[in-house]
Amino acid sequence: MLRRRKTTLQTVKSLDAFPKTSEECVEATPTGGTMSLLSLTVMVWLVVMEIMYYMETNFKFTFKPDTDISEKLKINVDLTVAMPCKYVGADVLDMTGEQVMTFGELEMEDTWWELDPDQRAHFEGVQRVNSYLREQFHSIHEFLWRSGYTNIFGDMPPRRRFPQKDKDACRIYGHLGINKVAGNFHITAGKSIPLPRGHAHLAVFMDEQDYNFTHRIDKLSFGDASPGVLHPLEGDEQIAEKNFLTYQYFIMVVPTKVDTYSHRGTTFQYSVAEQHREISHEKNSHGTPGIFFKYDVSALKVEVVERHEPFLEFLTRLCGIIGGVFTCSGLVSRFVGFMVNCLTCRYFKAQKTASSEEETSKPSVVPSASLLQSVNLSPSDVGPQLTSKTTTSTPLLEAPGMGSLTT
């Protein structure tokens, strides 16, 4: 078993794709230390920014066919017309031809057209804010979807000052449940009378000076309240300069399904185009004076979904940040170190030192004694020998009468 374990460990060790460098071969430099600190700082900053980005949510908008044709469409109305309620009639006529009473009934309340200072300040604030939101919606719509506020403007404050004159206006407010088909919600002179095919408005007892379709729209929306949905007509005020005027609002209603962390539900958005003209038969401008909201329902619905970035993508981006910074910092560190060495002439000195060390480390070629013995040569036969002879005189015989002999 031990042999098998050792063999397995050796096999696994041989597959190591990450070579290790011993500490003796690693040289620490000031340039490398500086780059390490900078790299660590950049890495930490990028990781923190990536975590903050992951904590934020993204919105996805998709269009799908609207298959729920049996759903009812609710209209929320709160507007004021500068005519007493006895002269005003409000109802709905759609493509199905159903009776007006089936849609419900709006409340009518006599009031004054002139607002008190608190009410006027509130209404002008609604005008400014709604105008800004319509113009800048493309840049702040995600903030509105996240906000969770369904009623940004609040309700109209109650009246504190009462004019010393008769009430000259009519407030029309309430909800109507209508079919999700094209229709016409209108406010005109005279009370409505139901007929087998539609209805009629009787205004035979009204004079020309009684017509005044100056109006102020406090609320006009479709469906339930939802954050992120703007209502373009809220805060709109029209002053009629002539008695016989018709105001037409062409509205396109878009079903919207909201699935965010602050709200879930189904509501409706709308876009609008406005037109008004004078009714004058002498000028061939025919029609009925009044306020007409002509609406149609889109065949496509919008789905708004709020989600976080997938966790695996978040991990992948983190790994890319760490690996990219580490690799780039290594390249930059080497390049900066090379430039520093070149500017301080250390690079060329290191090259000369390395070449001299290589020359001194080369071994000298000397024949070994074993090699000489194998060829039966004496060391004196290997190379030329320089010898010197000295002659010494040695006395041999010394005979009487003869000089000494020397050799």
Q: Flag low-confidence runs.
A: 365-407
Overall average residue pLDDT: 79
Give the overall shape: elongated
The ordered H/E elements are: HHEEEEHHEEEEEEEEEEHHHH
The percentage of residues in β strands lies in 25-35%
Report the end-to-end length measured between terminal Cα atoms: 91 Å
Helicity level, as a percent range? Answer: 25-40%
Largest sheet: 7 strands, mixed
Class by SSE composition: alpha+beta
Count of individual beta strands: 14
Rounded Rg: 50 Å
Number of helices: 8
Describe this structure in words.
With 407 residues, the protein is of the alpha+beta class. It has 8 helices and 14 strands. The strands form 3 sheets. Strands 1, 3, 6, 11, 12, 13 and 14 form a 7-stranded mixed β-sheet that branches. A 5-stranded antiparallel β-sheet has the order 4-5-2-9-10, with no helix packed on it. Strand 7 (191-195) and strand 8 form a beta hairpin. Helix 2 runs antiparallel to helix 5. The longest helix is centred in the last third of the chain and has 33 residues, at 311-343. Residues 365-407 have low confidence and may be disordered.
Sum this structure up briefly.
The protein is of the alpha+beta class. It has eight helices and 14 strands.
Topology at a glance:
Elements: H1 2-14, H2 30-55, E1 58-65, E2 72-81, E3 88-94, E4 107-111, H3 117-135, H4 137-147, E5 169-179, E6 183-189, E7 191-195, E8 198-202, E9 215-222, E10 236-238, E11 245-259, E12 264-278, E13 290-297, E14 300-307, H5 311-343, H6 346-360, H7 369-374, H8 379-382
Parallel strand pairs: 11-13, 11-14
Antiparallel strand pairs: 1-14, 2-5, 2-9, 3-6, 4-5, 6-13, 7-8, 9-10, 11-12
